[in-house]
């Protein structure tokens, strides 16, 4: 068949043309684009869609960043609906600022980009001793984030451009002294109050739910009693240790390596020397340098004439405060421990020799070599295990990239089983049960990786039981898994969760009873203030809360004080209800001028932040930013927490 194609190329091309062109005519290019699943649109900025897959990738990057900076952080917090929505808001913000930067033509010069990269602390760690950048480690660091140097630098350039959008507003913000003092005095004003608490716990003790009550509550709130989806899986891990296991090294290779690296493997030769230093740094005037050199020459003549006096001469004349009290003794040192000129001289001498005057960046030295420590050369047999480990490690590092490619291709090409790739690469096929979408507490290693779990619980992996892609969960560590049995999330039977249902019923109804009682008392006390039964008086402010809940303090400070005493009711959600009686308004205490100036500066920052936010909101409107996903309702909002008058 292939011979026919090779001999009749024009006929074949014509036939393919007749097959392909009509499909474009019938369906159009757009049909091909639509055939690729782009995912749901979750937001839109300046006419451009943000799709679900972009949001997912952005959130995975955010999780990786947070886990790297805070390894002990609970993974469940990172992948909560609130955390995911916050990522989407940041993604929209970046798109809005990028659109504004493009509209305003805010570019970044190569010099500005270079300064930013130079000041990056992560990149600074990759610099060699001479200040040059280790490009191989730089590429590895970025590769672990799925970036090339060009992509990373483009991202930095874009980020710098985006920052300029709000920089003008941020740099120009200010507030007058009068405005700052007026606002701060009002904000930190004090209130003398009394409080009555209606605690849910007090009401819970009086409630006795019936079986019918519990069943009704259970049916109305089945989503509260769900067992999470779970899976039994098999998985394979490719890491450096796995690659090493597949490497065998012959004795001939080990002996060749031993012979080539004998000196390095046995350890470096060390020498012991004493010296006399006449200090004169390179930056000193030439006249001073010459004077120091002449002084060193005089001392050299003296110790050459009487070598046994070297230590005494060093004590009296050496300007090295560290060694002079010890007669110039520097103890044993390797070649790399000393500056080059000094090391070259010391390692060229014989034991007992005294050098000529040696010039270094510190001044002029006279060196006496007092001892030589030659490392014992270990035999091949003594070092065989160590040699084998070194050679395997080196070969594994070279082989890993090649094996990783085989691994990635293998789990994709034979997507219905991990056994073939495990056998081919001699990897252990592992199993795990009870695996959930979020890593359980105490789980570590690859099964705690959000990237792997996200891939494992993808629609394709769940429905078709296919292998996941090869996921990099750590440097030089890839994992692929496959679901063998899947149990979807389900409502647990009432019999299994009866006590949990009872506790939730009590919490809900106790809070409601407390709220009803509190609201009734509030109305009665407003009508007859003298009948109010409240706590002893206390003084609260925003910076002196007296350990009161924030809603209570907030209610006290927001209460209309036109006529005193004044009452406010505070819904504390699951905690119950509170009534606040405001007795007196107390002005803010005067602060020393230095502290007051610092507070005004803080207020100016708040004001600037508010202006920046207002400008950003204007940009959102201008570029028609729209989030199409409902914002998660927080637990407090869901319980109806707030203030009632």
> Mind summarizing the main beta sheet?
5 strands, antiparallel
Treating each run of at least 4 consecutive H or I residues as one helix, how many helices? 26
Class from secondary-structure proportions: alpha+beta
Low-confidence blocks of residues: 1-38, 635-645
How are the strands of the largest sheet arranged? Answer: 14-3-16-15-18
Summary?
By secondary structure, the chain is of the alpha+beta class. Helix content is 52%, strand content 17%. β8 and β9 form a beta hairpin.
Protein architecture, described:
The chain has 645 residues and is of the alpha+beta class. Among the domains are: 1-36, no CATH class; 189-225 and 496-587, no CATH class; 230-250 and 382-488; 268-373, Chitinase A, domain 3, CATH 3.10.50. Helix content is 52%, strand content 17%. The chain is built from 26 helices and 18 strands. The strands form 5 sheets. Strands 14-3-16-15-18 form a 5-stranded antiparallel β-sheet, with helices on both faces. Strands 10-5-12-11 form a 4-stranded antiparallel β-sheet. A 4-stranded antiparallel β-sheet has the order 7-6-9-8, sandwiched between helices. Strand 8 (358-360) and strand 9 (363-373) form a beta hairpin. Helix 10 packs across helix 25 and helix 14 (251-260) crosses helix 19. The longest helix has 34 residues, at 380-413. The radius of gyration is 38 Å and the shape is extended. Residues 1-38 and 635-645 have low confidence and may be disordered.
